[in-house]
Predict the structure.
Amino acid sequence: MPHKSRFTSGLLNQTAVYWGNPTPNGEGGYSYDAPVEISCRWELRQELIRDDVGRELRSKARIFVGQDLDDHGYLYLGDLDDLDSDEQVDPATVTAAFEIKMKEEVPDIKGARPVRVVWLG
């Protein structure tokens, strides 16, 4: 079993649903891989951020995760069981699912493991 730092294991104590691998669908949107549950720390926090093309916007939340997530992926605070089958296919249909607009990697307190931070818009 991989070692988890106290910072990571104590911090990532919530569950989110993640839709990754956004692929342009030819209609101005994206299609996604099947959603999966991930561990996270979800903070409702508005901050001014810049998206991947440099536009300034106000984030809806800041999320700490233990793995790399894709730009334009989606996150929802909750479990897969909270979603119906249509919502699992298209995160844009989920009222409380938000798109990843910015991401950053920071070292944990001991500098041993990276913690990833994403901002949702």
Summary: The domain at 6-120 is CATH 2.40.10 (Thrombin, subunit H).
